[in-house]
Amino acid sequence: MFACVRAVLTSLLLSISLVLSLLHSNAIAAEQEKAQATEKPLTGNTDTKTADEKTADSATIDANASDSKSSNDETENGKSEANTSNSAVQKRIINAPVDAFKQQQQDLKHYLKGDDVEAILVGTDEFIILTDKHKTAMNKGVMILLPDWQQSAASPNAIKQLRDNMPEQGWTTLTLHPPHQPDNYPSQALVAEDRLKEDNESLTDYKKKLSAVIIEVNKKAKNYPGVILFVAEGQHAALMVDMIQNLLIESPGALVMLSSYMPTEAENKQLAEQVAISDYPVLDLYLQHDHRLVLANTKNRKDRAKNEMKVFYRQRQINNQVSGYYPKHTLTRATIGWLKSIGW
């Protein structure tokens, strides 16, 4: 009996063990299925995320490539614009203006063609002379006409009037196109001593140059019969007086000064002294409406001439309407009347 009970218990234990193993295997299988079910959406998410990341990465790469291309395009455009700008800048280069003295010489040669335009060489510089021969049976003399600084030999202010009218009165005229005013005159130095020194140096060099030209013109004037007169305008008239005084040029038969002045007070006083002690006849003409320095210094010259009892000195004012321009024929009549009064 005991053996039967034992057999029954053993079979019962085996059955329980078998049931438990089945339950255990079912639980494991269920857990595995659950785990697999959980892993599938995770894997899908991972795959989706990876695809998104790939898309984002691809978009980033494309954006970087686009930016790089844009940058390259901008760089190339910048270079192209820079080249265009440089070429434009090169095209905008403005050449320095032609020297006014040379331009005036070219104009004289171009517009005044004929035998009356002659070029003379003084050193290495070329100067233009306009020759207008007398139109009468006898030549009374030669007038050497000298315009003011910066003016042409054909300037209408005064000189052209004499060029047109004096040949009909028996005078041959030689009109010089003079060198221009020195660049550094008058001096702009702050100290008066420095200004005086620089002005003296500039005028000394200029008078040497101008006197060399006047000497050559004077040689040409001696080829004609009669007396030789100088007619100088503005600051050149003052320089002519100074060059004659310092024996840089020969003393003329007479001197006609047209609106003469210098830019500094000391030089104007010196001009008055030199005119007063000169030994050649002087006609001092100026205009009613003239340069302020001309009007300010005419009285001083006249007073100094009286003090020195200079006989052949006449000062006369000519009425005008346009400042700086001598009215038609008035300059010619004043000059001829004065020449007749001194015997010419």
Mean pLDDT: 83
CATH architecture of the largest domain: 3-Layer(aba) Sandwich
User: How many beta-strand runs?
Assistant: 8
Strand content: 5-15%
Runs in which pLDDT lies below 50 for 5 or more consecutive residues are 40-51
Query: What name does the CATH topology of the largest domain carry?
Result: Rossmann fold
| CATH domain class name of the largest domain | Alpha Beta
> In what order do the strands lie side by side in the largest sheet?
1-2-4-3-5-6-7-8
User: What is the rounded distance between the termini?
Assistant: 191 Å
Report on the architecture of this protein:
With 344 residues, the chain is α/β, with parallel strands linked by helices. The chain contains eight helices and eight strands; from the N terminus they run ααβββαβαβαβαβαβα. It has two domains: 1-94; 100-341, 3-Layer(aba) Sandwich (Rossmann fold). An eight-stranded mixed β-sheet has the order 1-2-4-3-5-6-7-8, sandwiched between helices. α5 packs across α6 and α6 (265-277) packs parallel to α7.
Features:
344 residues, alpha/beta, Rossmann fold, 2 domains, 8-stranded mixed β-sheet, 8 helices, rod-shaped
